[in-house]
Amino acid sequence: MALFALLFTPKPPLVTQSDYAIARQLPANQLSYYPLQQSLDPQHYRAIADWVGRLILPKVEDYQKDNPKDWVWLEIYQAPPQYQNLIGKKVRLTWQPSPELDRYLKLVTTDINFDEAATESEKQGNVLPRRLDGRSHVGPLQALAGARTDDDVVIGFPTAQVSEADQATPILRVKQMPLMVTGRSVALVKMLGEAPPRSAQDLPAQCPGAAPCPSELMRVQHYNPNTQTFDGTEEIIRIPQQPRISGDRFISTPRQLAESPEGKDGWYIYGAQGKEGLFTVQALAPRSLLQLKPTDIVFGQNSGTDYINQGNWKNTPERKGTAQSVLVDPRSDSPEIALKSWQEGDRGLGIHLFGGIGGKKGESVSGGTVTGHFSFFFPQVVRDPFTKELQWRIPYYQVYAHNPQGILSGSQSFANYTGNLQRGWLNSRPISNVIIKSEILNDYDFGGIKLSPLTELQRQLEVMMARYRTGDGNGNASVTPAASCVQDSNQALYITIEVLKQQVADNPAIRDWLQTNPTDPQTKRFEKLIQLGDRLTQVLAPRGVIRTDWKNNAQTLAGTTADPNSRFMQKDTLANALLSWQSMLPRVSHDVLSQIFLDYGATLWFLRPNQVGGKMPEILPLAPTNLFGETPFISAALRRILASVILLPTAQEWGIAVALLGLYAAIAIPVGLKYQFLQWQPSQQPLWQWILPLIVLFFKPALWEELVFRVILLPYPDGSVSWPLKIGLALFSLGLFVIYHPINARFSYKAGNPLFFDPLFLSLAALLGLICTIAYFATGSLWAIALIHWVVVTVWLFGFNGRSKLSQNRVI
Fold this sequence. Notes:
Helices cover 37% and strands 16% of the residues.
């Protein structure tokens, strides 16, 4: 347990002031810096969404006037043409009623009362929803509006039902949680270089690199859609230098931004017009990263596997400042065919992972492990309004614990999460965004009854994200061995699989359609979805043992629980941590899930920026790692040891172990008696004299040899490794197990010489190794295979005269 506490317990920062509070001291990070009325040139600047506004938390007395429904104030920044009169007004934002919404609100609406852990977390510099403490019936909108100490959460959404638009307090109703966004407008520009400062305020006092600091003013040239080049209007904009935060480092900088190799195709700049009239950048995104133009294409499944395991993060520090866009296609060898498979409107599943910060101002690393962060996102191929080219739209669904930066759990735009200058990771961390395209994940229509795997996963993540914002009512969501971004994102995936299965099981019309149309392509596709779900479940629930809290949550969301008031459970125990060990480390989960989808024929597109943006010489990008760093064998072996020790066999698995022991006896005893290797001569010693030898035999050879030759050398039986590889590793470990005995007799255990060279002895040892291998794959338990080994050795030594066959120098 100490190991998990070391690796997964957040370490308190040196100062208790949050990075969010430090960054808020910069005027450009305050919403009051940006006037409500903007005068940007519409030829160059576009609204980032149809509706954009700032959330404002209502007072408690405002809620007391109404029924306890979930609503917030919204200060409108952008609106569709027919509602331009609402810009600058404060309206009420609430929900469009629906049965599905009622279930969602019931699951996530909660009373919030901070506990001691929440108060302690705040002291460590984390941003918690302090303004919500003591409130009742807090819904997801209210939780989002009150998530920080200031009303500075900006959201965007495409549609809303507007009622009473001409009244003093109009009402906007939405169907789903809005997207957190950054800025109000966006433009596509090329950075030309630093512009001379106009006053001392344009020169920051501190910045990365050597003094003097560069000007915050930048000369840019806008994209010209007529010529499709950057020969449009030149303009001077402001790119604020962010202040120094905890760790004595910066999160972004405009220094030498114009020289960034990833700016060759231009930058999307997100922000608004500041008080002095200049467009002030709040977020950046390199156009080259979002284009559907891979820098490399990897063909074939084996090559794809190599890229996932090795190529994706290879030489990460040396790739600082650059980005790679790598397409992995397992089913073709033609670049044209590979690229044509991605069309406008295509949706997919995305896996996000970021790494660590190294260098002189880097983060501390425990045990060589760079944990990183994991989340899902839902990419879509869209048409860029500036260039009319196809590009990625990436909305993240972040299950995010409370943190010093004020990053919030919820759905976020690429600019808000990745490119935000105040708290985004584009300039300070390496990132891997894997876009998965598979027909298995597309929507299904069974005679008018529709199922959508991606939409269902979005629903489950919405529940998970809302829970993290409130800390399930105690105000604090922290990383623990059994609860984290990666484990609870994968819990949402597991619940999605269970809910889809239940929807089919509960709907006779779907089952009838599948039986009536067995050869329909949709039926075949659905069969593959079920197989994929089973494979994913094997990984998320090793040996079929489900965490009790995950199982309860799945039943609640599938509507199969007998308790109508059942709520989410979260049990933070070591056993639960090990039950979700494949989803404990972000890098492990990222790679395992990518590999599973690749095995099922999916194409993968990796977007890999490595601290892209301005120059920050004090830091380097660090790849996320498995446990104990870049030593995957040790990392995997340690996880297997922990799981095999902690997860005890079920009654059924004990029965399998006993049956296999009986099978060994049924083969070994007749063969041994026939060739006179075994003679039935029970020991005549008193039973009390057996106690110490029996104890010694259990630990050595039984427990020791099974630990080395089975647990450490063989893959854990969780479905993450294919059977051909399992068989190959099993034969390898079995060969080592047999060879070990004569080597041991020759150099260490002299009592075994010459017996351990006897072909019959080695044959029976090979049979024992085979039986224990089968038992390990069936149970995943060190105790089960050690028991089999122990019983065989004990019965041979004390029942079949095994001790007399050992030399007089024997230990036992």
